[in-house]
Every structure is written in C-alpha cells, then in structure tokens.
Design a protein that fits this description.
single chain; mainly alpha; rod-shaped; about 85% helix; Secreted protein
C-alpha cells in the first residue's frame, strides 16, 4: 500500500511538474506575442510620425513655391505692362524681366521635381502653371489655385491617414526574429 501511495504521489508530482512546464511554455509564447505586438505598434507609430512630418514638409514646400510662382508671374505681368507703356525709355526693365523669368523657370522646375509623375492631378498642376505663365489672367490664376488646393487637400487627407498609423498595405513592420 505504501508503494501504491508513493507511486500515485510520484505520478501526481510528475503531472503537476508537466502542468507547470506547460504553463511556462504558454506564458512564454504569450509574452513573445505581446512583445512582438508592442514592437510592431512602436514601429508603425514611428514610421507614421516620420512619414507624416516629411509629407507635411513636402506640402509646405510645394505650397510656398506655387504661391511664389503666382507672385513672381504677377510681378512680371506688371513689369511687362510698364515696359509696354514706357516703351524703350527704361533700359533696366528687360534685365529685371529676365531675372523674373529665370525665377519663374526655377520655381516651376522645383514644383515639377517634387511632384509624383504617376499621378494625373500632379501633371494637371504643371499644366495650370504653364497656362498661367503663358497668359496671366484671372481665369488662369483661379485654375492654378484651384488645382493646387485640390492636391493639397488630397495630400492632407493622406497625411492624416498616415499619422493615424493605419496602413492597410503593411502587415507587419518589423520582421520576425529567427
């Protein structure tokens, strides 16, 4: 009887040890999953912050360049009108006109270099800039401003989505360790 009790006690002890070992393995797996989830969340948050900040800088830079483009083109139109009214009486006007033309070309190139050439809306902005440059009129000015605002709005919406950390195309930011 003592051997049976000893055998049963040993069996219960082995069973308890096995259960404890199983609990340790389950807890380890849960801890690993929790850590992986925390790392992924941190990586997504970090990525969202960096991308959002860079996209905001991009929006601000294009907005500044388009606004300056409109301003410089308006100055050029005023200078052209003055030159037409004065005729050849003012020799320094053509030099100033060349400087403004150079500035316009540089601003257009900066905007073009920042745009995504896979998006039709971005090409439409360049076309609106070109039309405004060809003929600085209220209609061309309004078309340019409207196109720029629609792009800024779309990019702002994209920025807010990125800032929220939701990216449906990213399944896991940090690869699993092996």
């Amino acid at each position: 009887m003592a051997t049976i009790i000893a055998a049963v006690s040993a069996g219960i002890a082995l069973l308890a040890a096995g259960g404890a070992w199983g609990a340790v393995l389950v807890n380890r797996r849960n801890a690993t999953d929790t850590i992986r989830a925390m790392v992924n969340t941190g990586a997504r948050t970090s990525r969202a912050a960096v991308v959002s900040a860079n996209r905001q800088k991009w929006i601000d830079a294009i907005r500044d360049d388009v606004a300056e483009f409109i301003s410089v083109r308006s100055q050029l139109k005023g200078l052209e009108n003055l030159h037409r009214d004065l005729g050849a009486a003012s020799d320094h006007l053509p030099a100033e006109e060349r400087l403004l033309r150079t500035r316009l070309l540089m601003l257009r190139a900066r905007v073009e270099m920042r745009l995504n050439h896979d998006e039709d809306e971005h090409f439409a902005l360049l076309s609106a800039m070109d039309r405004y440059d060809e003929k600085a009129s209220q209609v061309a000015d309004l078309a340019l401003r409207t196109k720029a605002r629609s792009i800024f709005k779309a990019e702002w919406t994209r920025l807010k989505k990125e800032a929220s950390g939701i990216d449906p195309f990213v399944r896991e930011v940090v690869p699993e360790r092996r």
